Amino acid sequence: MSRAFNFSAGPAALPEAVLVRARDELLDWHGTGASIVELSHRGPEFMQVAADTEANLRTLLSIPDSHAVLFTAGGATTQQALMALNFATPGQAVDFVVSGHWSKVAMKQAAPYVDVRIAASSEAGGFRDVPSRDEWKLSPDAAYVHVTANETIHGVEFRDIPVVGNAPLFADFSSSIASGPLDVSKFGLIYAGAQKNLGPVGVGVVIVRRDLLERVGQPRANIFNYASQVASDSMLNTPPTWNWYLLGLNVKWMLGEGGVAEFARRSERKSNALYAAIDGSGGFYRNEVAANARSRMNVPFFLPDAELDARFVAESRAAGMIGLKGHKAVGGIRASLYNAVPVEAVDALVGFMRDFQQRHG
Ligand code: PMP
């Protein structure tokens, strides 16, 4: 068996060590005679998995006590609707900074419940930059300000945390969480679907400032109430135990590798190597994102025409590299360089790109 270098945008690569451990524990978890997913979520075994996972995630991300952590069954899109219901009154203003596709999805999910306001947008420029902070028009009465820390499709990333004033900052970190040190205390809420940097699809993480949980929000069922979820340790109903467990293994792996400081170093190294290959290709490969907003996680690029894009995808697959086809909204190629993607994978990709250009350039 040989595993490919996997550049998929999500669901994405998991560390081989995590998969091997999950395989080894699958039939008999720690001498219980059953797999962890065959045991009650309320039993001591899974309760331990859940508690360890939260503790390790708090260590990994330096999450302060001021913030609660939720493990959610819904992914990032679900949270985009729930945060409007939990933290804004009906029709209250919410400011959105629009830096790509997922910022627009966040607005769409909130739109039935709040007054969606676009504080700034880089759409007119084709999402090749993040809107500069001095251009944002924030509403004085906004329930929160929403940003997408890393745009997975357009490959643009906020490299610094913007200061937003009174309204709390809510941020979608689905595709860049745990890729570097972050001051969590600056955020009202951070959320992420797990299927990129945290683990498998089917579970999400919400990190929320506890005082915000006292907001009345809007009429909603208990199951959609973050405060109730926090009070019940994310177990108001049966949680996705397998996904939660795998996420826990992955968080432990990231700690063992040196934590977010180490992943920041690796991310710089990987993304710098790839952008250098693109920029040094004499225009054969193109990435048009502004240098200071280029994502370290998702690198979209284009060849001279769509036929070459398709050929690149096919030949790279034959060379043992998968997941490189660009998102249908933008086309081209996209290489996702999440934490589980080793430096060697990027070195292999860069070598392949050089070789491909020689043959087809
Ligand atoms: N936000 C971002 C930045 C994403 O990349 C994605 C998924 N690719 C989503 C939100 C949607 O996540 P989910 O599929 O978990 O709802």
UniProtKB/TrEMBL annotation:
Cofactor names: pyridoxal 5'-phosphate
Modified residues (N6-(pyridoxal phosphate)lysine): K196
Cofactor annotation remark: Binds 1 pyridoxal phosphate per subunit.
GO biological process: L-serine biosynthetic process; pyridoxine biosynthetic process
Stretches assigned to the Aminotransferase class V domain: 5-349
A GO molecular function held by the record: O-phospho-L-serine:2-oxoglutarate aminotransferase activity
UniProt keyword annotations, A-Z: Amino-acid biosynthesis, Aminotransferase, Cytoplasm, Pyridoxal phosphate, Pyridoxine biosynthesis, Serine biosynthesis, Transferase
Binding site residues for L-glutamate: R42
Subcellular localization(s) per the UniProt record: Cytoplasm
Reaction it catalyzes: 4-(phosphooxy)-L-threonine + 2-oxoglutarate = (R)-3-hydroxy-2-oxo-4-phosphooxybutanoate + L-glutamate; O-phospho-L-serine + 2-oxoglutarate = 3-phosphooxypyruvate + L-glutamate
Subunit structure of this chain's protein: Homodimer.
Family as reported in the entry's similarity comment: Belongs to the class-V pyridoxal-phosphate-dependent aminotransferase family. SerC subfamily.
HAMAP family hit by this protein: SerC_aminotrans_5 (MF_00160)
Function: Catalyzes the reversible conversion of 3-phosphohydroxypyruvate to phosphoserine and of 3-hydroxy-2-oxo-4-phosphonooxybutanoate to phosphohydroxythreonine.
PANTHER family: PHOSPHOSERINE AMINOTRANSFERASE
Name of this protein: Phosphoserine aminotransferase
Native species: Pseudoluteimonas lycopersici
Lineage, opening ranks: Bacteria, Pseudomonadati, Pseudomonadota, Gammaproteobacteria, Lysobacterales
